Amino acid sequence: MTQLQPMDPNEAFAELGRIRLADVDVDALLDKIAQLAKRTIPGADEVSVTLLHGNVAQTAAFTGDLALQLDEVQYEHGYGPCLDAAAATAVLSVPDTGSEDRWPDWSRAAKEAGAGSSLSIGLPVHERVTGALNIYATEPQAFDEDAVTLAQTFAGYAAVALANSHLYETQATLAVHMQKAMENRAIIEQAKGIIMGDRRCTAEEAFAILSRLSQDTNRKLRDVANALVTRASEPPE
Question: Which residue spans within the chain are E strands per DSSP?
Fold first, then answer.
């Protein structure tokens, strides 16, 4: 396991708050969350982030193979602390995998893989996706009350960052669609102007001609308009 320099929690929270959403995608943000959690939460040896969409779960970020392996054991069996934490946005602690009996198959696999304890904290991402911050330790009883409280606080900052990222991507996608719609509208208006000049007709009649041509040729209205504008802009032979 890669050992990273411990990080002051306030510095980690500030770093999460400073992330420029225009510069990072969701994958990079999730990786940042996992790496910061590993450096910030006392006792953490490896960290992962589970995303749960309906009944489909995946590990979206992880700091080491141990975390990924123990997440995937849960996905295979359909139950485990990270899945339950994600589904209920709850805090689930496993103080000792050797004596844990709520998820016997997983706890046995965790013990054999070298994990002594774990902590999973639910992350509300947005209305259709929840997640969990999963913190694994090689030693039993690795997370005391202070560590659990800190992990919950960290998860709160992480959830805000993820929610803001989702909102940013939604708004950015909307802006792209609006720009595209404006470009399409401009092309259609140009095509209407060409038809009005050629046919000496009104704007409504020009649009009706474009629409009929679109239907007759089974092409999108924008494509028909673009072809007409392109043809009109070509120099005469």
Answer: 46-53, 56-62, 91-94, 117-126, 129-137
> What's the confidence (pLDDT) of residue 22?
61
Residue reference for tokens 């000049």: 197
Give me the residues paired with residue 52 across strands: 57, 130
- pTM metric for this prediction: 0.68
Closest CA to 66 of 154, 123, 136, 2: 136
pLDDT per residue over 55-64, tens digit each?
Answer: 888 898 999 9
User: In the CATH scheme, what architecture does the domain 9-172 have?
Assistant: 2-Layer Sandwich (3.30)
Q: Which residue has the tokens 């005469």?
A: 236
**Of 19, 23, 52, 54, the residue nearest 36 (C-alpha):** 19
Task: Compute the chain's Rg from CA coordinates.
Answer: 27
Domain boundaries, the chain: 9-172, 174-233
